[in-house]
Amino acid sequence: MSGNFCPNCGQRNADVRVSLRRMLMEVLDDQLSLNSALPRTVGALLFRPGHLTTEYVQGRIVRYIPPFRIYLVASLLFFIVLPWVLNVDRIADQSREQRLKAAARDSMEQVRADSVRRATRSARRTARGDTAQTPAGARKRDNGLQLNLAVKDTTHVPALLMPLNRHMLATEARLEALPTEEVMRLGMRGFLENLPTGVFLLMPVFALILKMLYFRRKRFYVEHFVFALHVHGFAFLLFTVMLLSPWTWLNPLLQVWFAIYLYWAMKRVYGQGWMRTLVKYGVLGSTYMILMLLGMAGVVLATALMM
Question: Residue 35: left (phi > 0), alpha (psi -120 to 50), or beta?
Answer without folding.
Answer: beta
